[in-house]
Amino acid sequence: xxxxxxxxxxxxxxxxxxxxxxxxxxxxxxxxxxxxxxxxxxxxxxxxxxxxxxxxxxxxxxxxxxxxxxxxxxxxxxxxxxxxxxxxxxxxxxxxxxxxxxxxxxxxxxxxxxxxxxxxxxxxxxxxxxxxxxxxxxxxxxxxxxxxxxxxxxxxxxxxxxxxxxxxxxxxxxxxxxxxxxxxxxxxxxxxxxxxxxxxxxxxxxxxxxxxxxxxxxxxxxxxxxxxxxxxxxxxxxxxxxxxxxxxxxxxxxxxxxxxxxxxxxxxxxxxxxxxxxxxxxxxxxxxxxxxxxxxxxxxxxxxxxxxxxxxxxxxxxxxxxxxxxxx
Length: 328
Hints:
With 328 residues, the protein is mainly alpha-helical. It is 59% helix and 1% strand. A hairpin with a 2-residue loop joins strand 1 and strand 2 (274-275). The two termini are 16 Å apart.
């Protein structure tokens, strides 16, 4: 395939964000802030541009393992191979997503996706820059089985694209689908910082993994979105580099060598004395410093962001490196 499905989906994503904004206004709701949305989109563009480089090595590693150590041979023409790939990728996505919340090494990058105190379709595009350096490794068991790289890549792309529409407050519960599929209601819980919602609903496509492994929570109280250490910047570099730098500083300041290593592999909030308790709601919430005041300044930023978004989408879609880009 010559075109990247993620790039092809970007105009659709943009259109759906416009629809969400309009429908929310008609309903008398405010679900977008300009400064927050700009932060979301710039994080997403940075992730995709960086992925142009990092995905090459990830795909090469997967293909090497598949060719030299794959246990079975699968036919791309067999629909069951694609069905298996979709389910298997989703199961391993659950594993890595859970790791990303429970271990500092994963959370230092994944936290970027949760920093917004809003919840809308733009937040779906708020992707971390550094998770891609390690996320590919969790899918190597599929290479050992012999699952073709094409199946893995397209299944992963489908997984990412599915999760776009569940980042909205405008869709309620969906009846029987709530038992099997990940839905907006389930994913709102995942983004909530309410004590009962912390570390729940890790699913990508199928919520059955959370139901099976005891990480499911039903949406009851309205979720309070964001993180326990709120971000105080709209700068995507600060958003992505800040948590990594903070973990490095925490590791360096530990006096015992073992503790310096444990920082990386312990759960967020860990210290040698245990896990620091967090207050709810998180102190310092409600940041809305707006350095974009004024219609002309906002229009200037929006114009530049729009132009850069178009160029980024074209590069992603038509690059000859399309196959590696599907890693996301």
